Amino acid sequence: IAVFQADYRRNKAEGVPLEVLQKWTGAELLKLYGRVDAALTERILPPEFNKDGARLPATVNTDSFTDTDDVLLENHTPTPTNWGAWVLMAHSWTPNTIIIKTNKAQKTATGSGLIGAYRANANLSSDAHYAQADIDRTGDDAADRPTAVMVRANGTTNVNGFYGGAIWDTQDKTRLVKVVASVDTVLGTPQNLTLTPGTPVLARLEITDTGGLTLTISGGSTHTATDDTHSGILQGGIYALTNNYSATWDNFEEGDLV
Rounded CA gap, 54 and 43, in Å? Predict the structure, then answer.
């Protein structure tokens, strides 16, 4: 509860809307007690905010990336429902923008290792959530060039969060990484895949309230790890590092694990 209260105070100070905080509190109550009621709500909230209330969490954001070609992702309006906007996260390597191309998000090949990382600037109700998308690559790129989705994504001057996805190269495999201030730490054991450029696969990354991470590719290969860094962060995102071939995402979805 002390950790939750500290995260609550931080999010309150950062101006997270009350409705979002209430859903997050509801998710915490379900985890701890299996129910949401007024007395328990007052018990777990910080004393100075114990009248803020709680509600059952139910937040899902999607984006089909339907838009005009070459629109920057930060200028794109999410479709079919406008839940907010995408925010480019800076990186210690020069950040590279993602654009809309044929109704998909695309990180264009650059000929050098540049990172494209965006977070969905709309809070979910809990830091126990998932992000998923159909990911693809236009060719087998250099080693360790992932196309991925993110959970607990945070930052505007640095990338923070977890990303999970796939690497198209001569040894296709999964990739699961923790990022703190744009510094990567590889987590868990990579799983072998069979990937074909031009054939999308569904990448889904989940994180529980205690940091249990599960990456699945098209419902098959599973890559797991445990790391509870970035607790209290309520946004998902997308991430790629490209060299000679472009990365794409379609049918993005993020939501709470409830």
Answer: 12
Q: Which residues of 151-190 are buried (b: 16+ CB within 10 A; e: fewer)?
A: bbbbbeebbbbbbbbbbbbeebbbbbbbbeebebeebbeb
Give CA–CA dist 255/243, Å, rounded: 31
- The dihedral built from the CA positions of residue 235, 80, 76 and 107, taken in this order, carries a sign that is positive
Q: Residue 226 carries which side chain, given as an amino acid letter?
A: T
pLDDT in tens, 183-221: 999 999 999 999 999 999 999 999 998 999 999 999 887
- SS (HEC) of 176-224: EEEEECCEEEECCCCCECCCCCCCCEEEEEEECCCCEEEEEECCCCEEE
Query: Around Cβ 38, how many Cβ atoms within 10 Å?
Result: 10
